[in-house]
Amino acid sequence: MRIQLINPNTSADMTHAMALSAQSIALSTTQIIACTPEHGPKSIECAFDEVIASAALLDLIEQGKQQGVDAHIIACFGDPALDAARELADAPVIGIAEAGFQMASLIAHCFGVVTTLSRTLPASEHLLQKYGYQHKCSGVRATDIPVLALENIDPAAYLLLKTECLAAIEQDGAEAIVLGCAGMSSLVEKLSAELPVPIIDGVVAAVKLAESLHQLGLQTSKKGQYGQRVSKAFTGRYAHWSL
Ligand code: 2AL
């Protein structure tokens, strides 16, 4: 099986780190094809970043489709352009936030989310609402650690992250924690060893969901919302999307 793992921000170091996590958990028969867009923000931390990153992300989905990959993963916790990517792709497209919520809800009565900047809290809350997981979520907490500071995280920032996870468990009643950034993928083992509840990284959750869907022969439904996009002309720099 070939899984296209897309980091929608332009930080190649972050792509490399999440690819290592993904490959370490994948079946030996699964190949992870990690990609980074050429154009866009170095990290995705607000709605503006997300919209700008989405165009390049969709180009990568199309590239993966041309290469015949068996699944696409959008490895950013805002699940940017997930619905649009599903319109484009035939193979399953999995967002790491939805994957994290799904896995957490199977092993815990309620889960907490611990994410990066406070300003991303409403975005995470909107996703929980959109996917129907609000009733399973004990709360979303921010660490105010910028996404790029997660690479080579310093001890003070790590302590902050662990402290918010503990607060989610002790104060909010979280029975599992979903990590709210793809950049936290490399920290899941250490956090799991140090905290008393399951810690879920959306990147590896997405890999395992992709493998399951592939083994079951399940593809994106092309009836209704994720059907072929509406055919029309696109102009200017988006002319390549004309259908
Ligand atoms: C993210 C993420 O996963 N990648 C990125 O650039 N920003 N998420 C976040 N909560 O800031």
TrEMBL record:
One Pfam family in the UniProt entry: Asp_Glu_race
Protein name according to UniProt: Hydantoin racemase
Listed GO MF terms: amino-acid racemase activity; hydantoin racemase activity
InterPro entries: Asp/Glu/hydantoin_racemase (IPR015942), Asp/Glu_race (IPR001920), Hydantoin_racemase-like (IPR052186), Iso_Racemase_Enz_sf (IPR053714)
EC number, UniProt record: 5.1.99.5
Source organism, top-level taxon: Bacteria
Similarity-based family: Belongs to the HyuE racemase family.
Annotated organism of origin: Marinomonas arctica
Catalysed reactions listed for this entry: D-5-benzylhydantoin = L-5-benzylhydantoin; D-5-isobutylhydantoin = L-5-isobutylhydantoin; a D-5-monosubstituted hydantoin = a L-5-monosubstituted hydantoin
